[in-house]
Each structure stands twice: as C-alpha cells, then as structure tokens.
Design brief:
242 residues; nine-stranded mixed beta sheet; 2 domains; globular; alpha/beta; Glycerol-3-phosphate (1)-acyltransferase; 20% strand; 8 helices
Length: 242
C-alpha cells in the first residue's frame, strides 16, 4: 500500500551513493534517528525499512492522538506515545526497552519530536532519544537525513541518506548534555551532506530505491506518446529528458 502510494505521489525515493545504511552486526539492535521535515517521514520510514533494512523488524513511536486516526498502523510496528507528560516519557522508554531487547529489531524515530524545517538549526534532540543508550547499551544509533525537494518534475523527490553509526557504549561515556550534542552533530552532518546533493539536482549522485511516475500524466502524455510512436521516436515523459 505504501509503495503504491509513494509511486503515485513522489517522483522517486533516492539514496545518495554515500548514504546507504550500515546496519552493523546482527547481535546489536538499531536505533534510526531522523530529522522531521514533513508528514511524509512516516512513509519514508516504512519504505526505507522494507527496502534498505529488510533484515530488521521496524517499530515506530507516534503521537497517540495521531495513531488513533491511523489505527491500522499498530499492526505494522507503530506504537502510541503520550507527549508532553512524564508518564508518557516513562511509557515510551518502557516500550522502547522491550523493542531494543531483541537484536533483530530497529526503532525508527524523529529526533526533534516535532516538525522542523531542514534549514532550522540547531536540530532538535528529544530527551527520550538521549536516554535510549541507557536502556539499550549494546545498540547502534544510525542518523538519517530526510528531504523532499522539487526538482524538474511536478512531483517532489524523496531524498534519504544514512550517516555514520554511533555505538551506545560511546554515548554512555558522555553525560546527557554531551550525549545530546553528539547525536545532534551526527544528524546535522548527515543533513548538510544530503542538502549538498539535493542542491546539485544530479540524479547520478543517487541510487533509486523506488521509482514513481514521471511526466504530466493524463491525456497530455497519452497524446505525446501516440505522436512519438507515429513518428518513430522513443517516448520519455520526463520534463528534463534529453
């Protein structure tokens, strides 16, 4: 369902050549922490978990009020959290601890805990993310940058790049404030690197995980296709076709 939805509304899901994920050893659970620029982040998580990290079972925290509107997502690893209260924070850590107790699992979460533009600095880091190393000392923390620019087609690009993983043991050697800065720095570096590739608009820098539909679509592209066929030319629906 998510794959069909993405193909209909996004030009392509692309990963830069440097941004393929390093899941690490199979005996260590994974925490994927991303920026939070858009509503599309949930779809990005679903597609990346299935296409880039299929060996890890995905779990995603979502605000409980929002999850009530998409209750079917509970069946595919999404769990609700009550934001803005100490009880909700405790419940999140309890569930996250159960998830990360299994090395075959991956916990995906938006680091800022709120929508935040890709250009906003500093990048937000929630206290819950900082505490995860304490409850999962053998985990690996993998930064993920997300961005959705419009290039030369009517649909946006979905760009995603994974950064260098951090060991929980290295985070535990730091105090909580320094730990938050380490996570923030890793995510910021990954976001800045993805932004440079996004600015280039060079599709050759990327690997395509999911290809969406291109061109105008509808009657106009049908007419262009028929005209190309009649004149013996190949048809390319892209606006930037050579």
């Amino acid at each position: 369902m998510f794959s069909r939805f993405l193909r209909r509304h996004v030009r392509a899901l692309r990963l830069p050549r440097w941004g393929l994920p390093d899941p690490g050893p199979p005996d260590a659970p994974l925490v994927v922490f991303a920026n939070h620029p858009s509503w599309w982040d949930g779809v990005a998580f679903m597609m990346l978990a299935a296409r880039a990290l299929p060996e890890r079972r995905m779990f995603i925290p979502m605000e409980a009020a929002a999850l009530r509107r998409y209750s079917f997502m509970r069946r595919i690893g999404v769990f609700g959290i009550e934001t803005g209260s100490s009880r909700g924070a405790v419940a999140f850590l309890r569930v996250a601890g159960r998830v990360l107790a299994d090395p075959a699992h991956a916990l995906w979460m938006n680091a800022p805990g709120r929508f935040q533009d890709v250009r906003e600095r500093p990048v937000g880091i929630t206290p819950g993310l900082v505490r995860l190393a304490e409850i999962a000392p053998n985990a690996r923390f993998l930064p993920l940058a997300l961005e959705y620019p419009f290039w030369s087609e009517r649909k946006p690009e979905m760009l995603a790049g994974f950064g260098t993983p951090i060991l929980a043991a290295d985070l535990l050697a730091l105090g909580r404030e320094a730990r938050a800065e380490r996570l923030r720095d890793a995510l910021t570096v990954t976001m800045d690197r993805l932004a440079a590739d996004a600015l280039s608009r060079d599709t050759e820098r990327f690997t395509v995980l999911v290809q969406g539909r291109e061109g105008m679509g509808g009657i106009y592209d049908l007419w262009r296709h028929l005209r190309a066929t009649v004149t013996g030319r190949s048809f390319d629906a892209r606006h930037d076709a050579p």
